[in-house]
Amino acid sequence: MPTSEETALSTPAAQYVPGHASAGGIAARARGLTKAYGSGETTVLALDSVDVDIARGRFTAVMGPSGSGKSTLMHCLAGLDNVSAGQVWLGDTEITGLREKELTRLRRDRIGFMFQSFNLIPTLNALENITLPMDIAGKKPDEKWLDQVIDTLGLRDRLKHRPSQLSGGQQQRVACARALASRPELIFADEPTGNLDSRAGLEVLGFLREAVDQLGQTVVMVTHDPGAAAHSDLVLFLADGRIVDEMERPTAEAVLERMKRFDSLRGPSDGDGSAASADVNLDKD
Ligand SMILES: Nc1ncnc2c1ncn2[C@@H]1O[C@H](COP(=O)(O)OP(=O)(O)OP(=O)(O)O)[C@@H](O)[C@H]1O
């Protein structure tokens, strides 16, 4: 059963909304966001009436036990998955209810994506990969911005290389540049360091941080790694499809301690990586 505090976090907006947007405005917003998979007795409630504001110009991390709904939240906020109930906005545009064609255009024009697998086209060189989404959209890149992105990511001397000629870290930097190239309103990164060694992972996190601090971008990153989350401005913690806590200016140690409290709620027979019990203790500092 949810605690009273958890219930308070998932009830309608005006009271308390995790991620509470700053003066910079709101890049994405969800109210009552609910996502169920399957039907009847096999229904899985992946998101349970989530209210969240993603602040513009900030780096937000999403953490939580396996199966808590992190990827589902990202997919619903990005219009990659339809919702069962509730509303989602990208900026001022409500995306719930948009037709697939409109969603495709919106994703292409306004959102950048980074995934664990870099999703680069092997036959294209780095520069062609970076500009591919814009080429498909028939848009000319803003050359000054593109130069800035390429230099910030240290890719200037790698532009003619194909993905197979680049290290994992360099490939992820290309994926990062591709996400940034069209100067999207929002970048979603799903475990962007998951396939990298720790040095390359740190580098990519540093670049995402720079994208926020120096280029004014907005980043939402799903991660399992407390060290990665420590690069963000704000961590949202999910459990059983609900946002149950948040942490401003996180440190790896503090995030790890918070995550341990999810683990300690699992029974001995519950070691299969499924979500923690809903009875998460919410003693916010
Ligand atoms: N396509 C699907 N069909 C059925 N159930 C799904 C589907 N996608 C996700 N789920 C279920 O929804 C819940 C949330 O999944 P989700 O992938 O969002 O969690 P997560 O926190 O990202 O997990 P992980 O950290 O393991 O990637 C889980 O119980 C999962 O089994």
Structural write-up:
The protein has a domain at 56-74 and 98-263: P-loop containing nucleotide triphosphate hydrolases (Rossmann fold, 3-Layer(aba) Sandwich). The protein starts with a helix and ends in a 22-residue tail after the last helix. It is 33% helix and 22% strand. The chain has 285 residues and is α/β, with parallel strands linked by helices. It contains nine helices and ten strands. The site of adenosine-5'-triphosphate (ATP) has 12 residues, from strand 2 and helix 2. Adenosine-5'-triphosphate binds next to strand 2 and helix 2.
Number of helices: 9
- CATH topological fold name of the domain at 56-74 and 98-263: Rossmann fold
* Residues in helices, as a percent range: 25-40%
User: Quick one: biggest sheet?
Assistant: 6 strands, mixed
What percentage of the residues does DSSP assign to strands (E)? 15-25%
Average pLDDT works out at 85
Bound molecules: adenosine-5'-triphosphate
Please give the number of β-strands.
10
What class would the helix/strand composition place it in? Answer: alpha/beta
CATH architecture of the domain at 56-74 and 98-263: 3-Layer(aba) Sandwich
CATH superfamily of the domain at 56-74 and 98-263: P-loop containing nucleotide triphosphate hydrolases
What spatial order of strands do you see in the largest sheet? 6-7-8-3-9-10
Q: What is the H/E order? A: HEEEHEEHEHHHEHEHEEH
Taking all Cα atoms into account, the compactness measure Rg is 19 Å
CATH class of the domain at 56-74 and 98-263: Alpha Beta
The span between the termini is: 22 Å
- The gross shape turns out to be globular
| Model regions low in confidence, pLDDT < 50 over at least 5 residues | 1-14, 269-285
Region (Disordered): 263-285
InterPro entries: AAA+_ATPase (IPR003593), ABC_transporter-like_ATP-bd (IPR003439), ABC_transpr_LolD-like (IPR015854), MacB-like_ATP-bd (IPR017911), P-loop_NTPase (IPR027417)
GO molecular function, one term: ATP binding
Keywords: ATP-binding, Nucleotide-binding, Transport
